[in-house]
Amino acid sequence: MELRSLFTRLATSALLTASVAANAAVITVDNTDAGFTSSGLNFSTYEPGYFGVNYMADTRNSVGDFGMWDPTGDSEWVAGIWKVEMLWTSGPTRANNAAVTVDSGSSTASLVINQLLNGTVWNDLGEYSFDLSGASVMIDDSNSTSGQNIIADAVRFTFVSANPAAPTDVPAPGTLLVLLGAAAAVFRLRRK
Ligand SMILES: [Ca+2]
Ligand SMILES: [Ca+2]
Fold it and tell me: pTM for the whole thing?
């Protein structure tokens, strides 16, 4: 292949890759969206910098309060690897040890986040492989003391890639037939 032609192909390929990345699906679930459910949380606009029209805070002297963001109702949701980010508002009574559970649909990952810090910005909680159904991110007050608030505002999911295909050691049936055909052809050539 001519070198110039190769460069053109590489450049086209890079452009395509960049274009896919720029158009990656982003799903933001806010505390006022249909994908959000909660228990023991109250609306607030007390601290600025929230996403949308308000955020929610738990009741300080009760336990069992939670907020849960479910992105699977969005038309852009697919199984695959998604980056998860969370936004909350800062305040002096925030929990420094809020429990967060990322549910892939078939397994869970547990995190502890400090909501005294990094308020009003998107905090990167990592990349996770999600199923088509059952995916969610939950925050609860199981770690926090009675003087602390957990805050539920918005969670943003950004598509990274499809799930990697399961590895296989067995050739597909079609591959085996091709190999057998090739072996038979070699055998016939040798007999001539
Ligand atoms: Ca909000
Ligand atoms: Ca509580």
Answer: 0.76
